[in-house]
Design goal:
disordered C terminus, 7 strands
């Protein structure tokens, strides 16, 4: 299993382009995936000036009930959505498989992503402890749809 270190975490690589131009990786135990590029031929935002990673897109797992919260949080950390492509609307999960839906977030730096991961992880840990749903990350999302007032 190939891994990369980015934003203070070790990510499991799930897909790599034949020429090594981009990599898709997931954060184990969390519903977060990233797509990074080393050449930025697609014109994504630059991440950090001295980093070999030139472009970054974040895929953040969510439910219908948690979408607004994670949209606001992503924007607060410098992310944005391409409204022409309707990226503000969650889509069926494609890059990460732990949550039923995902938001495609552009424009985040590695430092901002690290902060977002901290908040995302903390909110799920609170839910697991309070409602005893720590069986698996998927159980968290299933339970969040059933417990009123405790949606992530």
């Amino acid at each position: 299993m190939k891994t990369i270190n980015f934003a203070g975490h070790e990510w499991k690589v799930t897909k790599e382009s034949p020429h090594g131009n981009f990599v898709v990786a997931v954060l184990p135990e969390e519903a977060i995936a990233i797509c990074i590029t080393y050449s930025n031929k697609w014109g994504w935002e630059e991440t950090e000036p001295n980093s070999p990673i030139k472009g970054l897109i974040v895929y953040l797992g969510c439910t219908e009930q948690s979408t607004n919260r994670w949209r606001r949080t992503a924007v607060a950390f410098g992310g944005y959505f391409d409204f022409h492509k309707q990226e503000e609307v969650p889509r069926k999960s494609k890059r990460q498989r732990l949550a039923p839906l995902e938001l495609k977030i552009r424009g985040m730096s590695g430092q901002s992503l690290e902060k977002l991961i901290g908040i995302y992880s903390s909110s799920h840990q609170f839910f697991w402890v309070k409602y005893g749903a720590a069986i698996s990350p998927m159980a968290t999302f299933n339970c969040s749809l059933q417990v009123t007032g405790a949606v992530l």
